[in-house]
Amino acid sequence: MIRLVTLSALAILGACAPASQRPRASGGSAADWAAYGRDRDGSRYSPLGQITPENVSTLEVAWTYSTGEAADSFATARPTSLEVTPLVLDGIMYLSTPLGRVISLDAATGAERWAYDPHVDRTIEFGDFTSRGVSSWIDSAAPAGSICRHRLFVATIDARLIALDAPTGRLCDRFGTDGTVDLRRTLRNAPFETAEYAVTSPPAIINGRVVIGSAVADNNRTDAASGEVRAYDARTGAPLWAWDPVPQDSSDPAYNSWRGDAAHRTGAANAWSVIAADPARDLVFVPTSAPSPDYYGGERLGSNRYANSVVALRASTGAVVWSFQTVHHDLWDYDNAAPPALVTVRRGGREVPAVLQATKTGQLFVLHRDTGEPLFPVMERPVPPSTVPGEVAWPTQPFSSILLADTARARVGRGWGATPEDQAWCAARIAGLRFDGMFTPPSLEGSLVFPSNVGGAHWGGLAYDPVRQIVVVPINEAAAVVQLFPREQATDAPTGHERLTAEDAAMRGTPYRLRRQILLSPSFLPCTPPPFGSLVGVSLQTGAIVWRTPLGSMRELSPAREQLPADAAWGSINLGGPTVTASGLTFVAATPDQYVRAFETATGRELWQAKLPASGKATPMTYSAGGVQYVVVAAGGDGRFFGKSDQIIAFAVPPLRSITRKQ
User: 425, CA 20 to 30 Å: which among 168, 367, 552, 658?
Assistant: First the structure.
C-alpha cells in the first residue's frame, strides 16, 4: 500500500484551557482520546487548545492511512461504510473497520504497527455494514507489561465480542472462548438470519465489566431478534447479567405497558448506539430503539415502556434504576440513535449532574442523572390518532422545551422546489398525503412524516463545551413518506433498505407491508424548505438556541446541479457527529459534499473547510502527539451517495514537510 505522510517539522507549543476550566478527566490524559466520545461520559470535548479560531484556517493534511478495504480484494455483498472514531492513548491510535479489522497506528505519523483480522463473512448483506470503534481497558490487577493487561474490545458486525492485547494485537485467549464471546447465544428471540442481528457500536467499559447492546434489522417481523443489553466480565468474558427492554417479568412496573397476546414476544427495542457509563454511580445509560416492527404496533399496543427510552441500569446487576421515554408506542422509527452524554449543568448556582439525549424527533432532553427527571420543561401534548385498522397510536407524546428542528419547515402543503418543475412535482406528491403535524401516524393513503427516520438528531449525536455551556448538534430537516399496504396488495416499490430511495419491507406477523422513502424531488433535493440539514448550538444555561447554521450542500448529488445556485445556504442531509475543543472550535464532517469543517462554537460561524476523498460519515476526534495537535476524520463515505474511500486523514497546523512512504 502507498501512504502519503506529512510529518511536523517542529513541535508547536499550544495552550490548553486554564486548569480551573478543564472538565474532570474520565480516562486518559488531556492529549488522549480514550473512548468513543473521548471520555466515558461521551462529551466529545477536548481540552486541547493548540488549534484555535485564529489558526484553524491554516490546517493541512499531516498524514493519511488507507485501510485497504476500498480495494476489490475486500469486496462485499453490500457496500460498507467506514464510520470509525479512532482512539489515541499514549501516542498510539486504535481503530476498527467495517469488516471488524482492528488496526494500530503511530498517532504522529500514521505508520501501521499491527492489524488483526476476525475474518467476517463478506457475503452477508448487513443493513448498516460498519463498525464505529473499539473500547480500551487496563486491568489494574495484572502485572505491568503482562499480556492483555491493556485490552481492546471490538464488537464485530457479525456479533462477536473480541478481546485483543493492545500492544501486539494478539487475542486474549482467556477471554471467552479463545478471545471471543458469541453474542448471538442466549437471546430470547434468535435471529432468523445472520444479517438480522449485528453490532455496530463499541461497548461501554465500567468497573471491570463490558456492557454491550446490538443492532437489529428494522421491519422484518413482529418477533424480531430481541434486544437484550448484556454485561460480561472484562477479564474472563463470563456473562454477568442481561436486561431485556421488552419486559418479561409480570412484576416489572413496565410490563403492563405492553398489551396484546404477542406483545411480550416483540423483538428489537435494542440499544444500537453507544452506551454511556458513570463508574462512581455504578450506572450505565442505555439509549433504546423502536420495538419491532417500526411502523405498525397493533401487535404491541400500549406505550411500550423501556423502548425509545434513556434507561439507567445498575452496572453491577443490570437492574433498572430509572427510565425516561422519549417516544411512546413508536410508529416512526424514532430510535434513540444518538449516544447519551453525561455532563454537569449549572443551575441556580449549583452544579447538577445531567444526561443529554438528542432525538430523531429534533428535540434535546436534559435529564437529572440520578433520577431521570427533566431539568428543562417537558410537556405531554396530544398528537394525531391512527386511521389504520388494528392500530392504536398513543394519544400524547413528550415535547421538550428545547426543540432543535424547526418544525415550521414541515408546512409543505404547497411543496418546495429548487425549480418550478420541482415545486410542481413536490406539490402533486404531497397533495394526497396525510399530514397533521409531528407524530402523524403511518396511513393507508400515505403520511408525511417530519422529521424523517434519519432525524432530527441522528446517530452522530452531540458534543458539549463545558466552559461555554453550549451543546452542538447536527440535525436533518427533511420529510419522509410512509405508507402501509394490506398484505395481499402488491406495491411497486423495490424490496431493499436504501435510506434515500424507496424501500419496501415485509413486516411479517402484521396485516401490512411498508413503503417508506425520503421525500426527494426529481432534482434529488428534499421537498421540505431548506435548510435540509443544520448544525445547532444550544445554551445549557437557558435552554435557548443560540445559533443555527446550514450544514453542507446537496448540490453535487443533484442531476440538475448546473441549474442550482452554487452559493445557496440550503444545508444537507447529514450523518456523523461533532467534536468541540477548549479553544472554541467545533469540527464536523457528516455531509455528502465531502468536506470536513470547523465552526466557532460560540457563534456557529464557519472558519475552515477541507475537501475529503469521500464523505466523513463519522465523528472527528482530536489528540496531541509529539507536541502537535491533530484532528482526524474517517473519510469513508458509504459506497453510494456519500462516495467511497477507506482513508483515515489527520490534519495539523503547518509548517509541514511531506514524504511518501510505501509499504
Answer: 552
Query: What is the predicted pLDDT for the residue at 348?
Result: 80
Alpha carbons within 13 angstroms on the beta-carbon side of residue 182 total: 7
Q: What is the pLDDT of residues 158-188, one digit of tens each?
A: 999 999 999 999 999 999 999 999 999 999 9
Give the burial string for 34-70 (b: 16+ CB within 10 Å, else e). bbbbbbbbbbbbbbbbbbbbebbeebebbbbbbbebb
Residue with cell string 410508529? 331
Closest CA to 22 of 472, 622, 462, 467: 467
Contact 544, 538 (CB under 8 A): yes
Query: Cα–Cα–Cα angle for 92, 638, 43, nearest 5°?
Result: 50
Among the listed residues 41, 294, 333, 638, the single catalytic one is 333
Q: Which amino acid is at 4?
A: L
Task: Band the pLDDT of 12: cuts 50, 70, 90.
Answer: very low
pTM check: above 0.85: yes
Q: Which three cell numbers stand for residue 511?
A: 396485516
Nearest CA to 548 out of 569, 523, 576 is that of 569
Q: Is the pLDDT of residue 413 over 90?
A: no
Bridge partners of residue 390, in order along the sequence: none
Q: Of 645, 342, 289, which is closest to residue 464 (Cα–Cα)?
A: 342
3-class DSSP state for residue 344?
strand
Phi and psi, residue 19, nearest 5°: -55, -35
Residue burial 127-136, b: 16+ Cβ < 10 Å; e: rest? bbbbbbbbbb
Distance CA 326, CA 81 (A): 28
Q: Give the integer Cα–Cα distance in Å for 570 and 525.
A: 10
Strand pairing report for 533-539 and 470-476: antiparallel
Give the Cα separation of 564 and 569 in Å (integer).
11
**The amino acid at 236:** T
**All 3 cell numbers of residue 522?**
426529481
The grid coordinates listed for 351 are 452544579
Place of cell 488483526: 116
Q: How many CB atoms lie within 10 A of CB 10?
A: 10
DSSP code for 232: E
Range of lowest pLDDT (222-231, 272-281, 409-418, 537-546):
409-418
Three cell numbers written together for 397: 407524546
Question: Is 333 noted as a catalytic residue in this protein?
Answer: yes
Q: Is the pLDDT of residue 493 over 90?
A: no
Provide the H-helix boundaries in 384-476. 420-431
| Residue at grid coordinates 453507544 | 274
What's the first-to-final CA gap in the chain, in angstroms? 5
Cβ neighbors of 158 (< 8 A, separation 6 or more) are 100, 120, 121, 124, 126, 194, 198
- Indicate the SS3 state at residue 599: strand
**Amino acid in position 364:** L
With a CB cutoff of 8 Å and minimum separation 6, the contacts of 119 are none
Amino acid at 62: A
Torsion of CA 244, 245, 250, 253, to 10 degrees: 130
Select, from the ranges 280-289, 415-424, 560-569, the one with the highest average predicted confidence (pLDDT).
280-289
